[in-house]
Design brief:
With 244 residues, this protein is mainly β. It has 2 domains: 121 residues, Trypsin-like serine proteases (Thrombin, subunit H, Beta Barrel), CATH 2.40.10; 110 residues, Trypsin-like serine proteases (Thrombin, subunit H), CATH 2.40.10. 7% of the residues lie in helices and 37% in strands. The strands form 3 sheets. It has a 6-stranded antiparallel β-barrel with strand order 10-11-12-16-15-14. It is globular. One of its GO terms (biological process) is innate immune response. It is an enzyme of class 3 (hydrolase). Pfam families: Trypsin. This is limulus clotting factor C.
Length: 244
């Protein structure tokens, strides 16, 4: 999913979800997501909204590592019962690119499947901080299939000013956080909806972003990548969970 990264250790990121998104047409799409509570998955809206398609089902793999394996000892599969898209979602400029999936049954936490700590509504801007992004997306431009093993890559957060010099301020608002695309490192097709993970000083991880967009010219061209800045939506996430 990742260009320039390394394989993660099995279940190194026990909140990482793999989403199998089915449409009524029979088309299937794949995305990342995160477990944030025992019945809730966080992902991007663009994983669930495809132009000209109607969403039929979402199957959520937790505890997975090799998604090409028929089964894995720590993997569990859950079904989504409802999806909640942010009301501001705009596919044209990726504003409000955040969604939540409520599961039909509660997840049993294990050392291999557990929720991530979420950014609060008051966070620093993280510019120049190293973050780790994870996913099963393609590992090079033009790849025809996802990567079988979960991969990770460490990339630096860049300022929004630097990011908007590539994408413009219509796209890069204060609700977006970007990472450098230097050295052909970063996210690629199939990583959407997955987490931007920040390692805190006590060694625990916090999710501060959701993979949203890469440059239309490719993942390995050195352009920045864009993520939904979770601190801007922390209040919405909590309100959806508390009212459902």
């Amino acid at each position: 999913r990742i260009v320039g990264g390394d394989p993660a250790s099995p279940n190194e990121f026990p909140w990482q979800a793999f989403l199998n998104v089915g449409m009524t047409s029979g088309a299937t799409y794949y995305c990342g997501g995160t477990l944030i509570a025992d019945r809730w998955i966080l992902t991007s809206a663009n994983c669930l909204v495809v132009s000209g398609q109607t969403l039929k089902s979402v199957n959520v793999y937790l505890g997975a590592h090799d998604i090409t394996a028929t089964s894995e000892v720590n993997r569990r599969v859950y079904s989504g019962s409802q999806v909640f898209l942010h009301p501001d979602y705009n596919a044209n400029n990726q504003a409000g690119d955040i969604a939540m999936i409520q599961l039909t049954t509660s997840v049993t936490y294990t050392q291999y499947i557990r929720p991530v700590c979420l950014a609060t509504s008051t966070e620093p801007d993280y510019a120049s901080s190293p973050v780790t992004v994870t996913g099963w997306g393609t590992t090079y431009d033009g790849a025809s299939s996802l990567n079988s093993l979960l991969r990770k890559v460490s990339v630096p957060v860049i300022t929004n000013a630097e990011c908007s010099s590539t994408y413009g301020s219509n796209v890069v608002t204060d609700k977006i956080i970007c990472t450098s695309g230097a050295n052909s490192r970063g996210i690629c097709t199939g990583d959407g909806g997955g987490p931007m993970n920040f390692k805190q000083s006590d060694g625990t991880w916090k999710q501060i972003g959701i993979v949203s967009f890469v440059s239309a010219s490719g993942c390995q061209r050195g352009y920045p990548s864009g993520y939904t800045r979770l601190s801007s939506y922390a209040t919405w996430v909590q309100s959806v969970m508390s009212s459902n």
